[in-house]
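Supplementary Methods S3. Input chains for the assembly prediction are listed below.
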Amino acid sequence: MEGRSKPGPWPGAVGEGAVIETAALTKRYRGGQLAVDRLDLVVPRGSVFGFLGPNGSGKTTTIRMLMGLIEPTSGAARVLGQEMPRAGRRVLPRVGALIEGPALYGFLSGRDNLLRFDAADPTAAPRTRAARVGAALERVGLTSAAGKKARAYSLGMKQRLGLAAALLRPRELLVLDEPTNGLDPQGMREIRALVRGLAAEGTTVFLSSHLLDEIEQVCTHAAVMAQGRLLTQGTVRELAASARARLAVTTPDTADAVRVLKEHGVHDLTVTDDRVTGELPPVDLADLNAALVRADVRVRSFGTERASLEDAFVALTGEGFDVAG
Amino acid sequence: MSRAETLPIGMPSLSLFRSEVTTTFRRWRTLALLGVLAAVPVLVGIAVRIETSRGGGGGRGDGGGGGGPAFIGQVAGNGLFLVFASLAATLPFFLPMAIGVIAGDSVAGEASAGTLRYLLVAPAGRTRLLLAKFTTTVLFAFAATLVVAASALAVGALLFPVGEVTLISGTTVSFGEGLLRALAIAGVVALSLTGLAALGLFVSTLTNSGIAAMATTVGLLITVQILDQFPQLSAVQPYLFPHYWLGFADLLRDPVYWDQIARNLGLQALYVAVFGSAAWARFTSRDVTV
Ligand SMILES: Nc1ncnc2c1ncn2[C@@H]1O[C@H](COP(=O)(O)OP(=O)(O)O)[C@@H](O)[C@H]1O
Ligand SMILES: [Mg+2]
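Predicted C-alpha cells for the full assembly:
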C-alpha cells in the first residue's frame, strides 16, 4: 500500500515533495458542525507554510485530523507520504506538534514534563532520554527554570516548554497551531525567532495563525481558510501579487486630486487623510502626474504601492479579516 | 542525531508504563489516598486498645466480641489479626474508593488537562496508553492493599501481643505461617479490586472531565454495594463485582476453602475482560478534541 503513488484522489501531483497532502478532507463534528469542507492542501517540503484563517475557520480541526487525533468524516490526509491516522505510529515520531496551546503536568517540573512526553514515544531510546531533554530545554532557553514546577511557569515559558516537547527528536515536520496566541510581543518575537531558526535547518514548518502579519513575517507559503473552506494557497509572494497594485497620491488637495484622477479613468478611489488611492489606470502614469500638476494639485508623492497579503485576503473574501467567527 | 536514539517501531517498551507509575505515585493526591488508608489501622488499633483496657484486658484469644467488623474481637489477643480486621474494614469502601479515584481519573484526567493530545501525538499509541493506565491502576491497588496491611501489622505489633495464630477452623499455625497467610490475603484483596479498576477505566474513556469520571466510578461502587445488600436481588448478586470480596477470610481456614475465592477471581477476570474491551473499543475509536 505504502509508497505506491495512486493518481486517484490526490490533486496536488507534487508527490514526493509534499510533506502534507490532503484530498477532499472533510470533518463534520458530532454536533453537526461542518468544520472542514473538502480541503485540498499541499505543503511542500522545506517550506514555512502559513495556515491562515480567522477563528473558527477550521485550522485546529485540520491539524487534529493530520495528527490522527480525530477521524475525518470523508477524504484523506497524507503526512510524510503516509496515510493518517492509520500510519500514526510510523509518522508521528518524525513530527513535532503544538496544538491549541501547551498542556502540561502542573505538579511536575519542566524537565519531568519533557521526560514524560519523551517516554511516551516508543521509538525514543531510554538511554539517551536525559540528553534529549537537556538539549530541548537548552534550545528553548529553559535550562535554568527546568527544575521549577510547570504550574509556576508564565504562559510564555509554558509555550516554550511545549515547543521543547515538540523538539525532543530531530523532526522532519513541525506543526504549530497558533504558537504565539496569548503571548506578549517579546514572547512572540522569541517564538518567531525559534521558528526561523528551525526552518533554516531544513525542518518544514506548518504554522497556523489568525494574524496576517505573522504569516507575512515568517512564512514562504500560505493557505487561506474561511468557514472550513480553502480559499487559496501558494507562495506568499504569489498571493500578494495576485492582489493588484494600486496608485497612491499624497496631497493636501485631495478633493481636486480625486476629480482629476476620475477624469483620467482611475476607478475605486478612496481618501484617507492626505492620501488618495485608486486602481491603476491603463494610461501612462507620467501623463497622469502632469495632469495633476496642471490642475494645481500640490503633489507630495506619487507612485504605485505593492499589495500586501492583507489586500489579497480582502480581495479573496470581499471583507476584512476579523469578520467570521 | 545518532541512530542509537531511535528504536525500531513495534519493539516493546516499558518506558510509558514506568513514566505512568512515577507520575501517578508523585501526585500528592495519590499520597493522600495512601495516607488515609494507612491511618485506618491506626484508628482501629487504638479503638480496640481503649476498648480492651476499659473492659479489663479480657477477650484474650477467645474470638468473641460480637458486632463490629470481622476479626475485630481477636485483635486484642493477637496483633496480627489487626491486618485481617483492617482489610475487612477498608475493603467495602475505603480501598475501592481509592481505586475508583485513580481509575476514573486515568484517561479523563489527561483529557481535562489537555496532556492527552500530547501523549497521543508523541505517539504513545492508544492501546499502549490504555494498557499503561490499567496496569498502573492495578499496581496502585496492590500498593494500597499493602499499605493497609503493613500499617496494620506495625500498629498490631506495637499495641498488642503477637504470636501463634488460631485459624477460623480452630487449628493453630505458627506466626510465620500467619504472616504468609496475611500476605496471601493482601494479594487476593488487591486482585478483588481489578474488576473495579477496569470499570473505572471504561468510565474514564467516556468523558473529558476527570472529576466526573471519578465521581461516577465511586458512585457506581456505592450503588453496587447497596444493591448487594438487598435479599430481593439475590438472583443478580453473584454477578456484582463486590459480592465475594469478603470471601478472603476463607484463607484463614485449614484446609483453605477455595470456592469463594475462585469465584471472586473469576468474576474479577470477567469484569476486566468486559470493561477492558469496552474501554479499548471506546478509546481507540474516539475523537480527541481536547
Ligand atoms: N469538538 C468540537 N465539537 C463541535 N464543534 C467543534 C469542535 N471543535 C471545533 N468545532 C467547531 O468547528 C469549527 C472550526 O473550529 P476550529 O477548527 O477550532 O477553528 P480554528 O482553529 O480555525 O479557530 C468552529 O465552528 C468550531 O465551533
Ligand atoms: Mg484553533
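The longest helix of chain B spans residues 126-159. Strands of chain B lie at 165-166, 172-173.
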